[in-house]
Design brief:
Blueprint lengths: L2 H30 L13 H13 L3 E11 L6 E13 L5 E4 L1 H4 L4 E5 L5 E10 L4 E5 L23 E6 L7 E15 L5 E8 L11 E4 L4 E8 L10 E5 H14 L9 E2 L2 H11 L4 E2 L2 E2 L4 H5 L5 E2 L5 E2 L2 E6 L2 E2 L3 H9 L6 E8 L2 E8 L2
Antiparallel strand pairs: 1-2, 1-4, 2-3, 3-6, 4-5, 5-6, 7-8, 7-10, 8-9, 9-12, 10-11, 11-12, 13-15, 14-18, 16-17, 18-19, 18-20, 20-21
């Protein structure tokens, strides 16, 4: 090969290399701009399948609740409604009953229920029980849209069980979070002074707006009603509480039937302040029966009230010292024992009558 041919060949090669070097970035862009091939995921894990199944099975049972309150324009004296708050709830039965927290609808002049079809429906209040923070609303049934939730039980729950909360935190409708049961038999102190016993503690994220929504187990059954959080900031901090479904079931059935919760009662009259004075003066332990309502359970069981004379003399009748084997030192103790009972149940009262100690069966009314 001649000298000139060699120079030409080398020069052409160098030019081609320079052009290729310049084209490399453009080639990289062209290659990178193409959609990446999708890597097959494979099977979902069993827990993921369970989560999806629970949400799909339960979402049509969960509702979004918005409330309005009436205000008066001080200038025109006209009355109009303004938004008050939001919360969650769930479909109780095929007749359109909706269960939620009392504090979700407290003070509201109107409530609307949004179903999974995105439509809002005006609700009426059927009944409420502030002492258990529960309320029942009702809308006209919407066939094919609203589905009654599956009811479970809370009596056999174990710490560590998987749980799921579905609700509308911060107005973000149909949100599901998951966690475990962190503790059982907690006591929730309500703002009205009432105490809800046997509450379920969970670390499933519960935020404002989740109130009234269901807490589900891994079988998709509702085991509680989400009602409160423990948080210094007001947002989720790892501790939430739910009203156990066994209590909800008892209260809701009465709210639907009577519009209010009718507690089991023995029909006695007493007073803890007087009991404390009697204990201090006469060294008497227990709850002194100061009166009995005619026709009540106590009246039919033959319990005897105290006789109090105008001059201050008192002749004691029966003093309740135990109920179903549990010590009774105050009316509060007795009320907590009765709270576990239903109307029609029998309770065994241990009473002190003079020098005798008797056990008396009382059928609760």
């Amino acid at each position: 090969m001649s000298f000139y041919k060699k120079v030409f060949t080398y020069t052409l090669a160098i030019l081609l290399l320079m052009i290729a070097w310049r084209l490399i970035p453009f080639l990289e862009i062209a290659i990178s701009a193409q959609p990446k091939p999708v890597t097959p995921r494979g099977e979902l894990s069993p827990i993921e399948k369970t989560n999806i199944e629970i949400f799909e099975k339960s979402k049509d049972s969960v509702v979004y609740i918005s409330t309005l309150e009436q205000v008066v324009d001080l200038w025109s004296l006209s009355v109009f409604n303004i938004p008050k708050g939001t919360g969650s709830g769930f479909v109780w039965d095929k007749f359109g009953h909706i269960v939620t927290n009392f504090h979700v609808i407290e003070g509201a002049s109107e409530a609307r229920v949004r179903l999974s079809n995105g439509q809002d429906y005006k609700a009426i209040l059927i009944g409420a029980d502030p002492s258990h923070d529960l309320a029942v609303l009702k809308i006209n049934p919407v066939p094919g849209v609203m589905k009654p939730i599956i009811i479970g039980t809370s009596k056999d729950l174990k710490v560590g069980q998987l749980v799921y909360a579905i609700g509308n935190p911060f107005g973000l409708d149909w949100t599901m979070t998951s966690g475990i049961i962190s503790a059982l038999d907690r006591v929730i102190d309500e703002e009205n002074g009432a105490k809800i016993k046997h509450a379920i503690q969970t670390d499933a994220a519960i935020n404002p707006g989740n109130s009234g929504g269901p807490l589900l187990d891994s079988a998709g059954r509702v085991i509680g009603v989400n009602t409160a959080i423990y948080s210094p900031s007001g947002a989720y901090a790892g501790i939430g509480f739910a009203i156990p479904i066994d209590l909800v079931n008892k209260v809701v059935s009465q709210l639907i039937a009577y519009g209010r919760y009718k507690r089991a009662d023995i029909g006695i009259e007493s007073d803890d302040r007087i009991n404390r004075l009697l204990k201090k003066r006469f060294n008497i332990e227990g709850v002194a029966i100061l009166g009995i309502k005619p026709g009540s359970s106590a009246y039919e069981a033959g319990l005897i009230p105290a006789k109090i004379y105008p001059d201050g003399r008192i002749i004691f009748g029966d003093i309740i010292i135990e109920a179903d084997g549990k010590k009774v030192a105050s009316l509060k103790d007795l009320d907590e024992i009765l709270e576990e009972k239903n109307i029609g149940d029998t309770i065994i009262l241990t009473v002190k009558r003079g020098e005798k100690v008797l056990k008396i069966s009382v059928i609760l009314k």
